[in-house]
Amino acid sequence: MSHRSDFTDRHIGPNQYQIQTMLLELGFKDLDSFIKSVVPNNIHIKGEIEKAIPSAISETAALAEISEIAKKNSIKKNFIGSGYYGTITPAVILRNVLENPGWYTAYTPYQPEIAQGRLEAIFAFQTAVTDLTGLDIANASMLDEATATAEAMTLARRVWQGSDEAAFVIDTNLHPHVKAVVHTRAKPLKIKVIEIDFSSTDFAGDIFAAVIAYPNSTGEVKDISKIIASVQSKSALVIVNCDLLALTLFKTPGEYGADIAVGSAQRFGVPVGYGGPHAGFLAVRTGLERSLPGRLVGQSVDTHGNLAFRLALQTREQHIRRDKATSNICTAQVLLAVIAAFYTMWHGPQGLKAIASRVQGFAYNFRGALRSSGFDVANYEIFDTVLINTEKARQIFDKAAQSGFNIRLVSNNSLSVSFDEQSTENDLSQLLTIFGSKLDSSEIPASNLARKTDFLSHPIFNTYHSETAMLRHIRTLSDRDLALDRTMIPLGSCTMKLNATSEMIPITWPEFNSIHPFGPADQAAGYTQLIKLLSDWLISITGYDAVSLQPNAGSQGEFAGLLAIRNYLDSKGESARDICLIPSSAHGTNAASAVMAGMKVIVIACDENGNVSLEDLKLKITQYRSTLAALMVTYPSTHGVFESAISQICEMIHEAGGQVYVDGANLNALVGVAKPGKFGADVSHLNLHKTFCIPHGGGGPGVGPVIARKHLAPFLPNHPANSSAGPTTGPGPVSGAPFGSASILPISWMYIRMMGGAGLTKATEVAILSANYIAKKIERLFPVLYKGQNGFIAHECIIDIRELTKNTGVTVDDIAKRLMDHGFHSPTVSFPVAGTMMIEPTESEDVRELDRFLSAMESIRAEIAEVEAKQVSIEDSPLRHAPHTIGDLVRNDWDRKYSRLIGAFPNGESFGMGRGGKYLPTVGRIDGVYGDRNLVCSCLPIEELASN
Ligand SMILES: *Cc1c(COP(=O)(O)O)cnc(C)c1O
């Protein structure tokens, strides 16, 4: 095969010559000897995954192979509903957002000045959700409907002032998977869950909250005023699980006086995709915003007084509050929320109402016809779903399947049929034929619950209805952002590597994205094969025995893994073990997940080299010997080094009766060179959106498989709707869908298939090499904080700015913002150590790009030197004024101590002048504190705009 067709050489940025150059710089002849000096030899493996993973094939061949797999899924018409509905992704949004690297390769907007486009889109999502639910504040997305409901439960519990015994009431008629996730999440927190149908509103005993389905799983939309009054009379919070499309027609949770609304935004343009990814939503009334889980986009101002967007309040929530965090959510569903926002703008209020009315019309016509032909159907108000009680349920279900229609078999004597945006007149008449009935047009009766309030009146929802207008709006927003399609994003711990186009292509194939998660198993044979292959490969790569792909972010994998430990210990009668040891350097999600799994967090100190302090570890093991449940460590550590003592650490924990959780977010430094499942760990989560090329989407989606050794396998997640999704002995589901965000698994499958074992190993080796090359070169400018054996780092490098900050006042933020003037995205700031930056180049960046970054850092260092030498004060330096916007640069009253040229082109004329292109942030430095004090999280109503 010719060299040029080899995907490995496309994925790995540096070519052979550049690899040699970097090796030479570090004093090595070849990659082998280099890796041997970096990776501790007691964990180093060589040539193992090459045997287990099939050899690489070309992009063309891999696409052909996955298309054969895709064909094994059969595309049927879905009327199953249950939270997953047919929708039409407007083509202009499909191509220019979902299929556009400008959107899908962006990172979470922690650097808001280079993320105004996606922040504005999420702000629109939040506005749409608040308008539709009638509540005051909505967050930037939840992982799905089911977890959003569980998060609402824990939110309510946090603000509850009464007794610990108070129970959580759930509506029997919530969708089954939503109830199941609530049960999984309630159990480790010892929250008592009571299921009732609300036919009576007398609650015995204390309750802290109740969740009501509106519409519910039987299709009923009912007046919930009495239930709400009764719940609130007990000082408990009311959570309404609702449907955004239905809320264009029905009275909103806000108008009823509900406290919280949750649900899924899937049917706003995001394909069902065998269960995900989709954006869940969570909205609250004023007063609860500071307890809101997940991310929240807020408005603030920049240094020039212009409005600007940024993440508000809990920006790095888990890192700050750790075990007190409001949730463990880090990666959420940004790209899907962005799609839902554009879908809302595209249709506007009238368009959405028209879609909703059409759907409702189908449902009423269908029900009327069935009633006329003698079927037992209810008389209550409905939106899109018709419940049919019939002895012949199974028979009709089978007949429908044979005609290419999936309907829902609710029980042996009931069926339901849900209509959606994709439903047609033809579908309706065919369905009626299946039921032996025929059309008999029925009116939608007048409703007392009809929505009378305006919604989506803001111009953003009433402007972009032509394709030209929408195309330009999407383009305008994406031009404001820096994503991987313009520059390297050297964010430590985030692994911003190539998301290859061939990896992305299959995800929009209908064979993958139109499969319903609760459809018959034989229609998803392609998914079953893909999931099996990918699972086996991940097991081979990590050395573990069993995996669940269900968790839809790393944080959810952490929870699932710790829950497996919890249940394993319980099964051995060791329920008293509830201590989770976590090093001080850990990612914030770790502590938050431990709390969700019902454990208590004890922090372990790190030594001066950044390693887990063996001394402190020994001390804590002795102190908590009888109650030790687990140690949670990241490997290689979040300090970016391979700790040689890892095997010894695992032994110490096991010897004390505890389990070892290795946070696998840094697997990009391990694939092919070490296996956590073999060096002593019991369970890990992986981040397919880091190591295995799923793009970050501006802050999600993700997939966070939980992967474990044999003894924990019986305790991995399962799912009530699909027995093949996990062991019968499992704790229940951690995500709404049996296989979580299944429709993006083809990305990781393609990556592994096109790299093969040898390519994967080489990717790891080059990632480590590039990081060490950066470390070596940057050390002349900034001290490198931690190193491992032989003075090498793993796949990321922490530079220490604290001394410079002390001497000059130049902060990590100044450097991060000045990098924007160079057209770069900053490295990770102040994690895991405050006042430092963590650089992870990944294997995908070639040496030319690494050198370009180094040159920017050198120029910044020179500017710092001028402050050091007192040639300019920090306040007057370009560092503090960064980033420079066009408005700033063309001001008439330019009075800075440096030229406009230096402001715009800090590296002189050679970079970015003329034809080279220049990225210009659209806002200056944003005032975070102002934004938190004056919290604005959705577009101001039009009346207020007018009066301003
Ligand atoms: C990214 C990361 C996580 C969290 O993963 P999400 O997918 O964002 O939930 C946990 N631990 C470490 C070390 C990470 O880098």
Describe the structure in your own words.
It is a single chain. This protein is of the alpha/beta class and 948 residues long. Among the domains are: 107-332, Aspartate Aminotransferase, domain 2 (3-Layer(aba) Sandwich); 510-753, Aspartate Aminotransferase, domain 2 (3-Layer(aba) Sandwich), CATH 3.40.640; 786-933, Aspartate Aminotransferase, domain 1. 38% of the residues lie in helices and 12% in strands. It contains 33 helices and 24 strands. Strands 2-8-7-6-5-3-4 form a seven-stranded mixed sheet, sandwiched between helices. A seven-stranded mixed sheet has the order 15-21-20-19-18-16-17, sandwiched between helices. Helix 5 packs antiparallel against helix 25 and helix 20 (525-542) packs parallel to helix 25. The mean pLDDT is 95. Bound molecules: pyridoxal-5'-phosphate. Pyridoxal-5'-phosphate binds at residues 330-331, 493, 553-555, 587, 589, 634, 638, 663, 665, 687, 702, 704.
CATH class division of the domain at 510-753:
Alpha Beta
Could you say what the CATH topology of the domain at 510-753 is called? Aspartate Aminotransferase, domain 2
Helix content: 25-40%
Overall residue-averaged pLDDT value: 95
Could you write a compact summary of the structure shown?
With 948 residues, this protein is α/β, with parallel strands linked by helices. Helix content is 38%, strand content 12%.
